[in-house]
Amino acid sequence: MSAPVRAYIGLGANLGEAACSVENAIARLAAKAGLALVARSQLYRTPAWGVIEQPDFINAVACVDTTLSANDLLYLLLDIERDAGRDRAAERRWGPRALDLDLLLYGDRRIDAPGLRVPHPHLHERAFVLVPLAEIAPRLVLDGHGPIAALLDRMATGDIEALR
């Protein structure tokens, strides 16, 4: 068996019971063989990004140690999305979604393959991911972009609300 890899997963939803969808996805990750949930952020309400005429999102980040390959982890994330009612083929880019799971980081690996780019190519630009990521990994440094805290200092985060 290979040594576990630390991975970070972004979670978001804005259709139906979005907070429940995100919590259920985190529970599924925690229960999966080959994954150990190390940390998870609280839930955050964030304004829609891209297509802004849609409901606010509920976002979170989970940190896992996994023995799954990056591709197998991606397939698991896609299965969880499908089970939550997501149909990627029928939705518009940056539109509303029942559940969105993104593999943000997979150890220190760089992967550029069809359907899988790690680190996530827009991670450093998105406050809705960086805020929950900074909560659980405040000292994390994004290769080529610097510390998360410095990235957050350069972007607006005032419209992101932690849910208690």
From TrEMBL:
Enzyme class: transferase
CDD domains found in the cross-reference section: HPPK
Keywords: ATP-binding, Folate biosynthesis, Kinase, Nucleotide-binding, Transferase
TM segment ranges: none
Classification via InterPro entries: Hppk, Hppk_sf
Functional pathway: Cofactor biosynthesis; tetrahydrofolate biosynthesis; 2-amino-4-hydroxy-6-hydroxymethyl-7,8-dihydropteridine diphosphate from 7,8-dihydroneopterin triphosphate: step 4/4
Keyword Nucleotide-binding: yes
Domain of life assignment: Bacteria
UniProt similarity note: Belongs to the HPPK family.
PANTHER family: 2-AMINO-4-HYDROXY-6-HYDROXYMETHYLDIHYDROPTERIDINE PYROPHOSPHOKINASE
Protein name as annotated: 2-amino-4-hydroxy-6-hydroxymethyldihydropteridine pyrophosphokinase
Protein source organism: Cognatilysobacter xinjiangensis
